[in-house]
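Long-time lurker. I teach an intro course on protein structure, and each term I like to show students one example going from raw sequence to a predicted 3D structure in C-alpha cell notation. This year I'd like something fresh instead of my usual example. Would anyone be willing to generate the C-alpha cells for the chain below so I can use it in lecture? Attribution to the forum is fine with me.
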Amino acid sequence: MPPESEGADLHYRALERLYASAPINAKFASTLEITGEGRSRLVFKITEEDYHAAGAAHGTIYFKMLDDAAFYAANTLATDRFLLTTSFNLHFTKPVKVGEVVAEGRWVSGRRRVFVAESRLVDEEGEEIGRGTGTFMRSRIPLSSLPGYSA
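-- Reply from a regular --
Happy to contribute to a lecture. Here you go:
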C-alpha cells in the first residue's frame, strides 16, 4: 500500500473509532464504516424504542443517521480538525419501522474551511426513506486531541 493510502486508511479507522467512542452512540445499535475518501456507510438498527406516538421511527433518528453519514464522509477530507455541522436539510420520503437502515454519506464539495456532503437512508427493502444535505465547518478542535480518534 502506498504511504498516502496507509495514512488515509489510518485516518478512516480513527474516524470509525471516534464514532464508536461518542457517548450518544452507546444509545443506538449502529456501526460506521468509512468506505473511502468522501464516503461513509452507517448501519443502524431501528427498534420500537425509536418510535413516535404513531408507531414509526421519530424524525430525530432520521436526522442522526443522515447527519452522521454526511459528517463522516466530509471529515474524511479533513485530517487535522473536527468538523461541526452548521446546517442540515432533511427530506423524509417514507416512514420506517423496526429493522436495519443504511445511511450512505458522500462528500460533494469543499476542502478548506467549509464542506458540503449529502446522505441517503435506505430501508431493508432497498427503498429510500430519507435524504439530507449538510454544511460542515472546520472547527478549532484538533482530531488528535480527541480520545476516540487517537489510538
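Some talking points for your students: Residues 3-21 form the longest helix (19 residues). Residues 3-145 form a domain with the Thiol Ester Dehydrase; Chain A fold (CATH 3.10.129.10).
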